[in-house]
Amino acid sequence: MTGPGSPGSHPPGPPKQRVVVTSPRTRAPRAPRPYPASREIDEQSELGAVYMRSLIRTQRRLGLLLCAVVCGSVAALPLVFTLAPSIAVRRLLGLPLPWLLLGVLVFPVFVLAGWFYVRQAERGEREFAELVERS
Description:
By secondary structure, the protein is mainly α. The chain has one domain (37-134).
């Protein structure tokens, strides 16, 4: 049995200090690449193709998402008019509401969607350019 006075016990002392062990190379600057990533893209190397595919994939994802949202909302309007006939028979400025919404409201939505797409695509291209410049 080991107790406070037995030969196998250790006297309580100050808590041991924690030590963090790191590699000496973690703070070392990265070795420069043989040539910049922009050259990889220009020369159409395998790495350049990976960079370009990532940019194209990002823009395709943005385009498909925006197209789904805009087309889905426009396509939902006739469904709403079918399911809620009270809305379909309403008139605004002498025109049936469905005609007014589908003929007039859709175009500003398309313009806003186009503006949003261009803004997001340019942001993605800026981020891509920064990534290429860093590597």
